User: Fold these one by one.
Assistant:
Number 1:
Amino acid sequence: MSAIAAVEQVLASLPAGVRGPGGAVAVLKDGAVVMRHSWGWADVDRRIRFTPATLFRICSITKQFTCATMLERHPDPTMLNADLAAHLPRLAAPPSVLHLAHNQSGLRDYWATTVLCGATPESVFGPDDARVLTAKSASLQFAPGTRNSYCNQNFRILGELVQDRAGRDLGQLMRTHVFDPAGMPSALLCPETAAMPDGTIGYEGSLEDGWRPAVNRLHWTGDAGIAASLDDMIAWEQTIDAARDDPASRYAIQSAPQDFADGTPAGYGFGLARMTIHGKLAIGHGGGLRGWRSTRFYVPSERISVVVLFNHMADPGAVAGSLLGAMLDVAVPQAAPAADPAWAGSYRDSETGLVARVAITQANAVQLCFGPGSETLDPTIDGEAGNTSVRLRRDGGNLLMERSNENLRSTLVRCEGEAARDIEGTFHNAEYGATFTCVSAGGVLYGAFAGFLGRGLMEPLLPVGPDLWRLPCPRALDFSAPGDWTLEFSLDRTRLTVGCWLARGVGFVRV
């Protein structure tokens, strides 16, 4: 079967396989469009069709455009380091601009810390809120340059630094330096997420339960604020491919490998992630907000680009991988060995203090819950389990975890024993001005955060082990909710450490 026929076969299965209101996909080879297709509805109520010209929230794909604009304005972005202090006034030694651009800053993600400050999923979060919350940062979760942790306000700050230096709106700068040169006429910075300029709707729900417009009331800029059409994104991919042999091109500089401070290769730089898909290096990014999911990547060795846009919550990464597999004529992988059921259980990560949960799926794979969502790891014949960026192996009753993209190697210590229930009370964190309240209602322990953004929802606490609990957070302001918060109480119950994958090591004291 030819590559085009294989891609068309994948395309034919899309509407039934990823049920949702609408979507758009494109595949390019050698800079030429192999497939450009859209289907369904941009607005199911008004019966507006989803077309390749329909505007779409590309969300975190914005980050590479912010960095592109910065590099066009400031080929040596370190000149902006002196401006960082105004955004992070409480940090004695703030990270550098390059730490921000490579997600190595050590800052806690502000969409996670909004939960600590009392925000609820449909809260209003404006630019003033962002400035206040960012300025509260008085500590880091790791030394800059030593680890990678996804952090949205890294790129919000970068955008504001560039905007302030230029004395011009960031959207205007993106138009001048990126959109117009790339031939992206309808792309624009669209910070307010409550509505789209052309009326396109993002949806939550399912085929079984029905679709409903997703409610978003937050304000994005350099981190995730761009709206663009499929045709705009095709132009972007063609711009990338056209400059493929120019080492001085903007995208070549952005996509070059980066390192951590110890010289270990990093998997992220200038708003772009390096990943392995079907054995090939792909460079790109995904994005999401409630009602919107997207991904794009370029495979340099094959000169193949894939773009997938959904105005619902299906997984665009899986579809993009299938399209690339069709282009590469990838064989169906052989079944992996069965996972060891003895791995299942709850663990505490020795470095971050976070709870990790391991389960064995019906397909005999290992499911690791450490960050938001879960990661599927395939068992190997040598007794390990992993994917392209995460590896686990047994160490007695514990597990050794390696997360190469984050430069994190640590031990997951199995949690054993009962969780003591004498944890009711109110605890305060001075850095964020946040409180955590734990109460018993009918014999069930509940917890909630509060702060300058309001009072959060009461959620049931889930026991893990002695002094260790989980607080679920399935929904938050951003699409990627923090997931479970780990709550670790001191033996005398006077202190509490709270953390999640995006925001670790936040200390509270009993009031």
Number 2:
Amino acid sequence: MRGRNPIRKPVEGSGDVLEVKEVFPTLQGEGPLAGMPSVFIRLGGCNLACKFCDTAFEDFSPWSMSEIMSSVRKYARNDQGASVRKLVVLTGGEPFRQPIATLCDTLLEEGFTVQIETNGLLFRPLDARVQIVCSPKNIGKGYKPVRGDILERCLALKFLISASNKDYAYVPDVGQSLLSTPVYIQPMDEYDAEKNAANLALTQELCARHGYRLSLQLHKMLGIP
């Protein structure tokens, strides 16, 4: 969205209807579960407007729970009808902006692994089996500590790295040292070959210096959603 999206406030309700951009099959491209066949549910709207954001999430519409689950079941199957995509990723936008507990519970009841990708500024109580990956954002005023309720549930923290943007040229301690939370770092895609090469070089340097784990956007490398 490149910061051109409206900043949207959290939505309350039962969660029987959610604002959804799309549901699609892919491979998880980033973080600790990278490479896993998955179904992505892209939820609409975000509570931030990051200038580097490479995702379109504003063209959303109301989807009922039955519509969402019907799409998930369809995309979980391969061409022979076997259910092979066991991971469902809730992304956005910002998933915690909406009442997603009912959706998470339904997915878990049907045997799916559920992962949420969040910026760490919002939270809603969810089943303990839901896995959370937090990617903190610096909106020009420094990083804020990750909420304690997210940090204690967090499977990993994922930071974007940019050699040309001072706000993203380092990895802050947002609470990960307290719980030894695994840290993944990912070169920012700035749609500029020279900048991207510098971002990758800096990311590798930080991994070597601090022991962080490298995260690459596999889906972009493979040319898939």
Number 3:
Amino acid sequence: MKEFQPYIAEFIATFALVFIGAGAVIINAATQGALGLVGVALAHGLVLMSMIYATGHISGAHVNPAVTVAMWVNRKIETKKAALYIASQLLGACAAGFFLLGLFPAGPAHLGVPDLGGGIDSFRGIAIEAVMTFFLVFTIFSVAVDKRAPAGVYGGAIGLVLTFDILFGGALTGGAMNPARAFGPALASGYWTNQLVYWIGPLLGAVVAALVWKYALSNENKKR
């Protein structure tokens, strides 16, 4: 059973992120904005922070296919394991999406599927998602992977990045920064508009962040 623990952890953590994050969007829509953007941002940031502390020692708490791809690019995870991580994340996101559909069959806000705001086309949406994901993944490498970082701060730092990214980009793109966050609710609701934005943007930003950290800031190459 031990060999399956990382995948179970990724499933549970991603389920939590999508259930709470998309759920907050649904509640905000159903209550005419009672939570507001700040409430939605905090819901995402707090659940991610908690899941990182809960599962970081088991799976590394990727909770995001873009993070797993970035780790794979920097050879922090082998190919087979990366593929299983991504499968676990997508399954967790889909389970959360269908659970939300059961709770909210009317599907307010398309079950929390992120979407582009007024005046934001696909190109700008991809650019915004890429930049926000860059900040997220750059922080992950800097505080959770880099051995020089202070111990124990990674969960809070990463959760805060997700929070401030959504405060900035929530009204522009929905602030997904995570293909699983977009995919799970989309599958449950059948709402696929602009779905590619939430794959291309986060994956692009994550890979750039991984390479910037590796070649500009990491001290790993100096040891070789």
